């Protein structure tokens, strides 16, 4: 299912925090939304899951303006995993994951055997099956984040929105989450801070800076040292071998990279260049 943001602006508290953003997420692809803190990633995503109304432009899912869909229609098409869920603390993990089936039920419908199977499968895939009976409020941040992913998977929507899905996860679970998400074959748009994670798992990355889309393309072509310097204000170096391509970062005012390599010094002007 295709997702389109067409000329979308968002105004919050009297300030335009997203400025005329246009981007398309092709069916079955994973797009990473990256940018500095406050650049508008969450605000743009919120227009897709209708937590915010754009001040301009249209957000479409499968060609339909999301504002024209009923709540149930929208929930069947778009599932959301938020960065810091503070709700559902008084429910068990199993109950929260099963909430993902709600859009598929008639009002006050009961969970079917099929619902239970789908929820169990999602809990297994996210590695939380052993937590099923625990109350969500007693879980660690990373465990809770995996519960929210399981609930989103249980919703079985063709579109998945992830807002910083990995901020509480250890490295193993970050890789597992991104690999699970990639393997779903669904249309995914994810706000991510880790540029290496975005580069490895996303088909495309879209870069926001101060509310404006400043780059959009395949990760390797988009995450250039020049772009990273301009948008994030840090120096980046690409390290590549047969298996991996990773970015190493240093502050603009530091003189070495984490691996001890000195940055390439600026060329020293010759005397004739200075005098000319
Ligand atoms: N309810 C609100 N009222 C006023 N301003 C808001 C509101 N919500 C967000 N903002 C502002 O909108 C801007 C964009 O915020 P947003 O959360 O979309 O950025 P982000 O790129 O997701 O940031 P982060 O990486 O820190 O999560 C920020 O300057 C933020 O302070």
Care to describe what's here?
The chain has helices spanning 41-48, 71-77, 93-98, 113-125, 141-154, 171-183, 195-201, 219-222, 225-232, 271-275, and strands at 3-12, 15-25, 30-34, 56-61, 64-65, 78-81, 159-163, 187-191, 204-209, 212-217, 234-240, 245-251. With 276 residues, it is α/β, with parallel strands linked by helices. The protein has two domains: 3-217, P-loop containing nucleotide triphosphate hydrolases (Rossmann fold, 3-Layer(aba) Sandwich), CATH 3.40.50.300; 233-276, no CATH class. Helix 4 (113-125) crosses helix 5. Adenosine-5'-triphosphate binds next to helix 1. Pfam families: ABC_tran.
Number of helices: 10
Which shape, going by the Cα principal axes? Answer: globular
The overall pLDDT average reads: 89
Number of domains: 2
Rounded to the nearest angstrom, the distance between the terminal CA atoms is 60 Å
* Low-confidence runs of at least 5 consecutive residues: none
Question: Which class of the largest domain in CATH terms?
Answer: Alpha Beta
Tell me the structural class: alpha/beta
Bound molecules: adenosine-5'-triphosphate
Strand content range: 25-35%
SSE topology string: EEEHEEHEHHHEHEHEEHHEEH
Radius of gyration from the CA trace? Answer: 21 Å
Quick one: how many beta strands? 12
Please list the strands of the largest sheet in the order they lie side by side. 6-7-8-3-9-10
Bin the helical content.
Answer: 25-40%
Biggest sheet record? 6 strands, mixed
CATH homologous superfamily label of the largest domain: P-loop containing nucleotide triphosphate hydrolases
The name of the CATH architecture of the largest domain is 3-Layer(aba) Sandwich
CATH topology name of the largest domain: Rossmann fold
């Amino acid at each position: 299912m295709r997702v389109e943001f067409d000329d979308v602006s968002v105004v919050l508290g009297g300030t335009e925090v997203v400025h005329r953003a246009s981007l398309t997420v092709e069916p079955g692809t994973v797009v990473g939304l990256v940018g500095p803190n406050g650049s508008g990633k969450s605000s743009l995503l919120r227009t897709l899951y209708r937590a915010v109304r754009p001040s301009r432009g249209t957000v479409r899912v499968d060609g339909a303006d999301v504002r024209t869909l009923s709540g149930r229609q929208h929930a069947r098409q778009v599932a959301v995993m938020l960065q810091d869920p503070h709700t559902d603390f008084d429910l068990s993990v199993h109950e929260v994951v099963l909430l993902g089936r709600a859009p598929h039920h008639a009002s006050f419908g009961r969970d079917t055997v099929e619902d239970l199977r789908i929820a169990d499968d999602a809990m297994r895939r996210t590695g939380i099956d052993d937590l099923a009976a625990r109350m969500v409020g007693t879980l660690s941040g990373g465990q809770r984040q995996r519960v929210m992913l399981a609930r989103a998977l249980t919703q079985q929507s063709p579109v998945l929105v992830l807002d910083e899905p990995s901020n509480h996860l250890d490295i193993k679970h970050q890789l597992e989450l991104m690999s699970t998400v990639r393997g779903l074959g669904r249309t995914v748009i994810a706000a991510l801070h880790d540029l290496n994670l975005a580069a490895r798992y996303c088909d495309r990355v879209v870069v926001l800076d101060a509310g404006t889309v400043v780059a959009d393309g395949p990760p390797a072509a988009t995450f250039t040292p020049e772009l990273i310097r301009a948008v994030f204000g840090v120096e980046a170096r690409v390290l590549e071998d047969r298996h991996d391509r990773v970015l190493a970062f240093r502050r603009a005012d530091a003189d070495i990279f984490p691996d001890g390599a000195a940055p390439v010094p600026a060329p020293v002007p010759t005397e004739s260049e200075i005098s000319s």
